Amino acid sequence: MPDSRRIVVPPQSGRSIRVSRGDLILIIDPKGQQVSDLWAFTTEPTLDWLSTSQTRDITERLFPGLGDSFFSAAAKPMLTLVENASPGPHDMLYPACDSALYERAGFPNHPNCRDNLMQALAKEGISLPFTPDPVDLFQNSLPEPDGRLVVSASINPPGGYVTLRAEQDLLLVVTACSVDYYPTNGGICTEIHVEITSTS
Ligand SMILES: [Zn+2]
């Protein structure tokens, strides 16, 4: 019997989620226009993590396409995009938002995806000396023809979601991005839901 669980990621926060190989992972934006940063890790036998640069290289794409996998730093498939019930786009160029970004924008001590990642990992007993770049689901930041990078408001509608299949047993971290000024998340931070369906 398929077994389902739903995790709510409150606005401007992050959650760690363990999944098993074959699990289906829905990442849902209930209110719309909310970016969700996604990381994936394996810790056994050695630490490995989803690498957006390896993924761009191996899939020969700037942004994930339906049926494409996301690869680790060690070039192992970690997740596959099996359903895209969102107009996208999904970014694989930007780092996570961090305290330095908000300080540059004039907002010191602001919640941010990097700190939320590190706090979620700390609860799993993991401390990283670096921050892998995330997959920024629903982030509307396609490059301009002249190569400039501009973040625009997400066009994900309420209820827009993606479905990923776990290709390994993984530790995921999912955030609801913390940018609470226009345009990234439409000017307001809302929650993200994650639904895990195990088929085994
Ligand atoms: Zn963020």
TrEMBL record:
Among Pfam families, the record links this protein to: DUF1989
Domain named DUF1989: residues: 8-171
What is the protein's name according to its record?
DUF1989 domain-containing protein
The species this protein belongs to is Mesorhizobium cantuariense
Which taxonomic lineage does the organism of this UniProt entry have?
Answer: Bacteria, Pseudomonadati, Pseudomonadota, Alphaproteobacteria, Hyphomicrobiales
